[in-house]
Write a sequence for this structure.
């Protein structure tokens, strides 16, 4: 891993689905988050589909995620509209 430069460690969808129900799921993801932190990179979970998954991930120290829980795939035009709608107060 030291030969390759990377800034993120992505936690694959299969580890996220059923995280709160699968035996050892939380411990495995916690280990991945800790590995990312120890390597000095940002952990990012993919495939987050429920609020419960997101809550568990945040409680484990995973500050970033992607998935249908946040938004469905969008075209560039749809994305710009989504940004304007959700971040209008920040402008």
């Amino acid at each position: 891993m030291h030969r390759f430069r990377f800034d993120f460690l992505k936690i694959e969808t299969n580890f996220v689905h059923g995280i709160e129900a699968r035996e050892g799921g939380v411990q495995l993801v916690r280990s991945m988050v800790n590995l990312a932190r120890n390597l000095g990179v940002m952990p990012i979970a993919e495939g987050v589909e429920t609020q419960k998954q997101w809550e568990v991930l945040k409680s484990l120290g995973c500050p970033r995620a992607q998935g249908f829980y946040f938004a469905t795939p969008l075209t560039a035009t749809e994305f710009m509209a989504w940004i304007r709608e959700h971040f209008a107060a920040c402008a």
